[in-house]
Design brief:
Blueprint lengths: L10 E2 L5 H11 L13 E10 L2 E10 L7 E5 L7 H12 L3 E5 L15 E2 L3 H11 L4 H16 L10 E6 L2 H11 L4 E7 L22 E7 H6 L3 H12 L3 E6 L16 H18 L2
Parallel strand pairs: 4-5, 4-7, 7-8, 8-9, 9-10
Antiparallel strand pairs: 1-6, 2-3, 3-5
Length: 288
């Protein structure tokens, strides 16, 4: 679900041991978010979500205090749940959302699934992902998506009168599309950031699911992804138009695959902040 060629030379996250990962998560729970992550107190919890295939480890975030807010499922990229995606979860929750960030690979290993640094240019490092990625199938992702939305709807902090949002990064982009297709009555907004394989020739291609959805879409494409498959954006635009779904499909010029993920070698803060602003505008508009 994610093209390794796009990731050549991409280095994700400094070295983070499992113990340090836990300490960082615990220290962040319930604290006021930093200036980079919005100034609002947020509760963070490690949770277990029952799915038809087992029990998924995930992180749950919501604003501190009494109230109810719209829910969002965040599908992380190929390295799955780790501190940078916890940071995203806290930041989004601080904006007034109940946020679930699951571990994509719970069937194989609990997060963090990669210990230490990781370099896509190294065959040995890429090989670590092979058994993990094999555990994520379209059918399994569909079952997971239903379970994650149900879990969020069961939280007392979730405003079930509001639509659910979902966003995905890299291989998480297709999973966000699939979420909108399997729970169409609940999902009102979908965002994909440098999503991989959104419009392919395979029968499981995410763009074929668009007619099943009832959501508004934001699809932001990396410049090098567009150069690798320039027809993909046109297929997406045609599919959205045919289905009558409101959507914005844009190539972010000067932004490489992975540009929204802090800690990656290609992280582009200006472009990432622009994408974040577009995400918040989408949710404010569509999660009503």
């Amino acid at each position: 679900m994610c093209d390794d060629d796009i990731h050549q030379g991409l280095i994700e996250d400094p070295t983070v041991s499992r113990r340090m990962f836990g300490l960082m998560s615990a220290a962040a729970a319930g604290l006021v978010a930093t200036a980079a992550c919005a100034a609002a107190p947020v509760v963070e919890k490690d949770v277990q979500v029952k799915t038809p295939d087992g029990v998924a480890d995930a992180a749950l975030f919501y604003p501190e205090g009494k109230g109810q807010w719209p829910a969002v499922v965040v599908w992380p990229d190929v390295i799955s749940l780790r501190p940078v995606f916890r940071e995203m979860g806290r930041r989004l929750a601080a904006e007034g959302y109940v946020v679930l960030v699951p571990n994509l690979y719970y069937r194989v290993k609990a997060a963090p699934v990669i210990e230490g640094g990781f370099n896509f240019a190294t065959p040995e490092d890429r090989a670590k992902l092979t058994p993990l990625r094999a555990s994520v199938t379209p059918e399994g992702a569909d079952r997971d998506a239903v379970a994650y939305v149900a879990f969020l709807d069961a939280q007392p902090q979730t405003d079930r009168s509001k639509k659910v949002g979902t966003q995905g990064y890299c291989m998480g982009g297709p999973l966000a599309f699939r979420t909108a297709a399997v729970v169409p009555s609940r999902v009102g907004a979908v965002a994909s950031f440098h999503g991989a394989g959104l419009a392919t020739d395979q029968p499981t291609s995410p763009h074929l699911l668009i007619p099943k959805t009832q959501a508004e879409f934001l699809v932001l494409i990396a410049e090098n992804d567009d150069k690798a498959d320039p027809a993909a954006k046109d297929k997406l635009k045609a599919a959205f138009a045919s289905a009558g779904r409101p959507a914005k499909v844009e190539v972010y010029q000067g932004a490489a695959h992975g540009w929204t993920v802090r800690g990656s070698q290609v992280y582009n803060e200006a472009a990432a902040e622009r994408a974040w602003a577009e995400l918040l505008a989408l949710y404010k508009r569509a999660l009503a």
